[in-house]
Amino acid sequence: DTEVTQTPKHLVMGMTNKKSLKCEQHMGHRAMYWYKQKAKKPPELMFVYSYEKLSINESVPSRFSPECPNSSLLNLHLHALQPEDSALYLCASQPGPGSTEAFFGQGTRLTVV
Amino acid sequence: AQSVAQPEDQVNVAEGNPLTVKCTYSVSGNPYLFWYVQYPNRGLQFLLKYITGDNLVKGSYGFEAEFNKSQTSFHLKKPSALVSDSALYFCAVRDIGSGTYKYIFGTGTRLKVLA
């Protein structure tokens, strides 16, 4: 299994809702990432987990809350989002924090209404 | 600080012609360079990387890239373009020096291959 699986593929949520994005990989990778990508822009790093511990938070607002319950799973909990948070959210993983290329999931297209 | 520049927002090429998508970088130390491709509403797919060794790197789908240290460039090339190559291409550098190992992406180049 060489895939990073993200669910759901699409999500529409209101500004008062609480929702979660899920990312799963079974490649034994120990570094996992959340990126946010706006239309026609490069991905922007949000969070990095290394060996299930949060190692980087790129000054992301607290309405985004990451969680890594085990080495295969990465969640992004969403609460009280704004319309400008609408974007493609990408998860990525790689064998370790010092390794080379990352494997990306197909992303969750989030729309905040 | 590490950075990557993709000077062209869009590149148009006729099917069957060679294509080049440009990338220049600025890093302290040895660069770890990557090319990724993104199709509409999809994640990024790894194409190729340069870590060390031969300056000409071969990757997926017939793509290759040439690392040029003196010009600090890592241009993506393909000898004969296909319509299916039309997509958004990102050059990236790995930030090794800071210890974070995070990717720094260029702004992306949209490749349009015309039939």
Walkthrough of the structure:
The complex is a heterodimer of chains A (about 110) and B (about 120). With about 110 residues, chain A is mostly beta strands. Chain A has strands spanning about 5, 10-15, 20-25, 30-35, 45-50, 55, 65-70, 75-80, 85-95, 105, 110. In chain A, strands 2, 4, 5, 6, 9, 10 and 11 form a seven-stranded mixed sheet that branches. Chain A has a four-stranded antiparallel sheet with strand order 1-3-8-7, with no helix packed on it. In chain A, a hairpin with an 8-residue loop joins strand 9 (about 85-95) and strand 10. By secondary structure, chain B is an all-beta fold. Chain B is built from no helices and twelve strands. Chain B has strands at about 5, 10-15, 20, 25, 35-40, 45-50, 55-60, 65-70, 75-80, 85-95, 105, 110-115. In chain B, strands 2, 5, 6, 10, 11 and 12 form a six-stranded mixed sheet that branches. Chain B is globular, with a radius of gyration of 14 Å. Classes of the chains: A mainly beta (about 110), B mainly beta (about 120). The interface between A and B is medium-sized, with 27 and 23 residues.
Concise overview:
The complex is a heterodimer of chains A (113) and B (115). Chain A contains no helices and 11 strands.
Radius of gyration of chain B: 14 Å
What overall form of chain B do the CA principal axes indicate? Answer: globular
Residue share in helix of chain A: under 10%
How does the overall form of chain A come out from the CA principal axes? Answer: globular
What descriptive keywords fit this protein?
heterodimer; A: 113 residues; mainly beta; seven-stranded mixed sheet; four-stranded antiparallel sheet; 11 strands; 57% strand; B: 115 residues; globular
Topology:
The complex is a heterodimer of chains A (113) and B (115).
Chain A lengths: L3 E4 L2 E4 L4 E8 L5 E7 L6 E7 L2 E5 L6 E7 L2 E7 L7 E8 L8 E2 L3 E5 L1
Parallel strand pairs in A: 2-11
Antiparallel strand pairs in A: 1-3, 3-8, 4-5, 4-9, 5-6, 7-8, 9-10, 9-11
Chain B lengths: L2 E3 L4 E5 L4 E3 L2 E3 L6 E6 L5 E7 L5 E3 L5 E5 L4 E6 L8 E8 L8 E3 L3 E6 L1
Parallel strand pairs in B: 2-12
Antiparallel strand pairs in B: 1-4, 3-9, 5-6, 5-10, 7-8, 8-9, 10-11, 10-12
